[in-house]
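[Discussion] Sanity-checking designs against the backbone

I'm trying to build intuition for which residues belong where. Below is a structure token string of 157 positions. I'd appreciate it if someone posts a full sequence so I can compare it with mine line by line.
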């Protein structure tokens, strides 16, 4: 019975990994074609947080390097997935989400911190509103010890 269970568990894990590999290969195809909006649409459509966690650091690095591959609209589209990451029980997911948020805020800080009510880009208003709601919901992350809490404190100030 034990050998059968191990075999069955192995088969299930193999299917999960095969599926994840397929999804990552699709994401990689979009990235290589520089079809960032298609990549983001794909991530939103599949709602697979494991794939999001694998892809988001690449998008975060692109934002940090100030490459203009990623539009503000794409960042707004990704925010609901990032909110899900911040609610995860896995610290790695939370850290990936916080790192991405920090990169987004840094990239569009001048627009986000602008006090003028007239902002031509509606996505800035949407991002401001979503970030404001996020601070209220996830402020407890600043209480987490270690790296996670430290990066949360930087973002939430």
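Best answer:
Here's mine. Compare freely.
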């Amino acid at each position: 019975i034990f050998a059968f269970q191990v075999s069955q568990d192995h088969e299930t894990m193999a299917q999960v990994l095969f599926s994840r590999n397929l999804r990552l290969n699709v994401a990689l195809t979009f990235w290589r074609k520089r079809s960032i909006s298609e990549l983001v649409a794909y991530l939103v459509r599949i709602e697979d947080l494991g794939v999001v966690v694998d892809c988001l650091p690449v998008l975060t690095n692109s934002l940090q390097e100030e490459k203009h591959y990623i539009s503000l609209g794409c960042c707004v589209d990704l925010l609901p997935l990032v909110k899900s990451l911040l609610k995860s029980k896995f610290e790695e997911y939370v850290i990936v989400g916080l790192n991405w948020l920090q990169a987004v805020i840094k990239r569009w800080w001048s627009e986000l911190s602008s006090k003028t009510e007239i902002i031509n880009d509606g996505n800035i208003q949407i991002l401001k509103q979503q970030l404001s709601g996020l601070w209220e919901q996830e402020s407890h992350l600043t209480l987490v010890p270690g790296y996670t809490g430290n990066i949360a404190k930087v973002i939430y100030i």
